[in-house]
Amino acid sequence: MNHRFAALCTGILLALSLAFSGRVQARPYDYSLGVRFGNYFAAEGKFFVTRSSAVDISFGLVNPFAPAYQFMLLSGAYNLQLTKRTSGLLPYIGAGLSTGVQFGDRDRSREGNRRSFFMSADIPLGMEYKLPGSPVVFLLEWSPKIRFLSGVRFIPQSVSAGFRYTFNLR
């Protein structure tokens, strides 16, 4: 069942990237710093490398409201901005890695506070909205993860929203 869901998600991501691909426009800002909320509470920064690609780095806590099963996570992703921009909307798709420490276990029958190393491949798919004439960017992102240490597992429930303050070097 998880493999079918992963294949469906991959097909959707590919279709969206083809639908939004187009002529590259100038990047809307050079870098931004902010926070994200949801299943992943984090401080983050996004840095444009070219007109259509950026690096997104974040550090935070996954499952912040489930103290028995949390992850302290450092995450990095290379995002391709699908820059057929309209009215400040900036869709993107990317690939990245997350690493961190898992505290606890979903299986409540296991006693003690289990800690283990966590690593995953991430596939962020998101949308930014830059307010016209303002340095503020709002974001909504779904970043499913494929955990590959201590067993392979697909983790689809990584959804977050946030905002960042943008800066230009020019």
Explain the overall architecture.
The chain has one helix at residues 2-20, and strands at residues 31-38, 40-48, 53-62, 69-81, 89-104, 115-122, 125-130, 136-142, 145-147, 153-155, 159-167. The protein is mostly beta strands and 170 residues long. It has an eight-stranded antiparallel barrel with strand order 1-2-3-4-5-7-8-11. Strand 9 (145-147) and strand 10 form a beta hairpin.
SSE order and pairing:
Blueprint: H1 2-20, E1 31-38, E2 40-48, E3 53-62, E4 69-81, E5 89-104, E6 115-122, E7 125-130, E8 136-142, E9 145-147, E10 153-155, E11 159-167
Antiparallel strand pairs: 1-2, 1-11, 2-3, 3-4, 4-5, 5-6, 5-7, 6-9, 7-8, 8-11, 9-10
Write out key terms for the chains shown.
170 residues, 54% strand, mainly beta, 8-stranded antiparallel β-barrel, 1 helix, 11 strands
Task: Describe what is shown at a glance.
With 170 residues, this protein is mainly beta.
Give the SSE order as H and E letters. Answer: HEEEEEEEEEEE
Rg calc? 17 Å
What characterizes the major β-sheet? 8 strands, antiparallel, barrel
| Average predicted local confidence, pLDDT | 80
- Secondary-structure-based class equals mainly beta
Form type: elongated
- In total, the number of strands is 11
The termini sit apart by 49 Å
The main sheet orders its strands as 1-2-3-4-5-7-8-11
Give the % helix: 10-25%
Number of helices: 1
Residue share in β-strands: over 45%
Low-pLDDT regions? 13-24
